[in-house]
Amino acid sequence: MDKSNIIYSLFCLLFLVSILLSCENANNSKHKSEQLLREAEQAQHEPEESNSRDIWQKPQLIINLIGKNKVVADIGAEFGYWSFKLLPNAKKIIGIDIDDEMIALMDQLVKDYPKELANKFEARLALPNDPKIEEKEVDVVLIVNTIAYISNRVEYLQNLIPTFKNNGEIIIIDWKIKRLPHGDMAPPYEEREYLNIIEEELYQAGYKDIKTDDTSLEYQYIIKAKAN
Questions:
Q1: What pTM did the predictor assign?
Q2: How many Cα atoms within 13 Å fall on the side-chain side of residue 176?
Q3: Whether residue 146 is found in the same domain as residue 131
């Protein structure tokens, strides 16, 4: 076999391998998406008394804290646990995530809701340093189990302030740094952040009337602050 035939054969082999790998990745991605959808649907539709997260998360407490007829941006929405919990009482919910799979998942899940609720929901793809919220677009920004993953937090929080309407508020809920009953419930300690550090960063960013609550929820703290 001459040199040109050998090169051609190697090229064909590499091309075939790349096609096989692409097919495998596509199948894996499809399987992951289907699994995420099943898990999210199960979490959304289980009765509250049988849903373990609803027991310790106390969603009604946060729903009451936010109030009714608000435009809420749920930053780090993932599959929309909070977005869909808040939807019935909200004027509009914007479920924000940097993962396009989560955006697609929320778009799929909202199809199960009545039209009058689905029309109030938008899944929005963001960037790690930009939540893609318009100026004076929201009444409330909700950040749950996400704040520790945001880089340059003071700058990020400062950049959120123009997105609030008058009397806008930010609510941050995140894991306490303590031993939790289930090891896989929360991220490792190095991926959590102390309440007092987030509180101080909110002051640095220009927020006012900052209130903290580390007793209402067993595993998480709550921080609420006014943006203007």
A1: 0.80
A2: 16
A3: yes
